[in-house]
Amino acid sequence: MGNFESMLTSIPKHRLKLTELDTTGSTPLFWAARLGNLSAIKALVGAGVDINLGSASGKTPLIGACIETSNAECFDWLLQNGADPYRADSKGSHCLTAACCLGSLHAVKALVESGFDVETRDHAGMTGLGWAVNYDHESIAAYLLQHGASFGLENKAGWTPVLDAVLRNSHRCLKLLLKKGANYRFVSRHGWSILHCAASTGDLKTMEILTEHGLKGVDVGMKSSKGFGTRTAEEVFLAQRLKHPGAETLLLAFRRLLAAVEKANLGGEEMVSQDEKLDETDDVFHEAVEYQQ
Q: Which residue ranges contain the repeat ANK (predicted)?
């Protein structure tokens, strides 16, 4: 590092380049962090470059160090030497957002251990837990829950993490949230229950997870208040999903889910066996097709 540092501090023409943006809109320090070059990071900061100076979009070197999980040493050095983890980019995303989206458990742990508030929201009203759920990073979600993250906070779109897990088919995180006691009975401001979310985008695995859980206390017949009109979850499914590949199989899985919820609400076992199925006749699918027409 010695020669590099000497060059930066002794040759004026090189010093002029230390804070310039390249054609990608990034500074040398951002690239050093992005590429995991700790020697270059130390030399640049030692030469007086602002440790938070990253890219034209406002991404800091600390955010850059999140991009590759192999950059743990660079991330730690930046954090320990004054990098601001709360500084957001032009879209309002901060360092915890990046770490949770990109799956960097090391960065998440380092931030939490440094005292970063896990309930800090970004431009979308999302917490770190919300982003971890979006990308189904179960280990990060579990760690955040262990360190005070709330699974009851809504984002700006009106979804809690458990509803987002259903909408995104984040299977591992969905199982985790249900196991940890997330409020699956929550109704969004659109009047959508967890069943409406499953009806809209849920895949077979999501349907299976919810069916196994039983969802006792969820109102099968509740109608939404916004979005796709005032519809029940089943009506949302019939309106949106019948033209999708595998629609018949999805419909049968969704109706098994509805039956599981009804059974739980009537005092039956909350956990429903995978082998327990409704009568799967051709009438089910054809009835649904007729409904849509």
A: 24-56, 124-156, 157-189
Q: Which residues contact 253 (CB under 8 A, 6 or more apart)?
A: 204, 207, 208, 211
Q: Are the C-beta atoms of 63 and 95 separated by less than 8 Å?
A: yes
- Please name which of 84, 149, 153 lies closest in space to residue 114, comparing C-alpha atoms: 84
pTM of the shown model: 0.86
Listing DSSP states for 99-145 in one string gives: HHHHT-HHHHHHHHHTT--TT---TTS--HHHHHHHTT-HHHHHHHH
- Per residue in 117-133, pLDDT tens? 999 999 888 999 999 99
Q: Which two tokens stand for residue 178?
A: 């249900």
Backbone phi, then psi, for 64, in 5-degree steps? -60, -35
- Is residue 120 within 8 A of residue 96, CB to CB? The reply is yes
What residue ranges do the domains of the chain occupy? Answer: 184-293
DSSP annotation of 71:
G
- For residue 190 the two structure tokens come to 């659109």
Q: Kindly state the helix (H) or strand (E) to which residue 187 belongs, with its residue range.
A: none
**By C-alpha distance, which of 154, 165, 238, 173 is closest to 200?**
238
Q: What distance in Å separates the CA atoms of residue 215 and residue 147, rounded to the nearest whole number?
A: 26
